[in-house]
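Researcher: Re-running this chain for the archive, since the previous output was lost when a drive failed. Same request as before.
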Amino acid sequence: MIVEEIQNLLDKYLDWLRDKTTLRQLDDWVEITTPYIDRHNDYLQIYATRKNGNYILTDDGYILQDLEQSGCAIESPKRQDLLKMTLNGFGVQLQGKKLEIHASAENFSLKKHNLVQAMLAINDLFYLAVPMVASIFFEDVVQWLELNEIRYTPKVKFTGKTGYDHLFDFVIPKSRKKPERIIQTITRPNRDTAMGVAFAWVDTREVRPSDSKAYAFLNDTEHTVQAGVLDALRSYDVSPIVWSKREELREEFSA
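Model: Regenerated structure tokens:
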């Protein structure tokens, strides 16, 4: 990809984000409806208010309460650590059940981005398609990497060309034979989650070594991944790997 092409992709994404965002006054708060869709096909909403010259942004407890109501508990120490690691990666705080971040006028856009990305990441990370399933998809990927003695660093944050932060699930360092490999897991593959990963990679790739590669592990244990999702990822140079075919590409990560 040439620089102009990447810049055009970034501009289109940011235009979409701006055009599809709506605001509504609620007493001392402003409700911000984003174009990002949750698993109920509802638009994600956050809330902002001014305090002492700065701003507080919150999800008002929506993400964690929705997961709990769906039967997905985040009670074990391991999952609590995973939750904290994800929140820390975006600079988001946990206030009771609420996800919260503080912003100034100068970094409001960045902080809003970080809160929404944290909401999306946690919702996808912990959501169980079948509540009786004991493990989450991220844990399955960790187990597979460790079973195959693939060395990795979890939850790595990069700041992209736009200045936005992006948290990737795993980074496999460069070896003598292979370049750096960046991996994102997608529990519920659809066009929106695919485009989120695609934008993160397009925004990040220029700040990484030129030969770095991006991969997306796609959970297909419950539903077949649609061709449009695979095509969307490939068009942005993200290599999709459906979970049922992971063994075919094991050498790509173990070398």
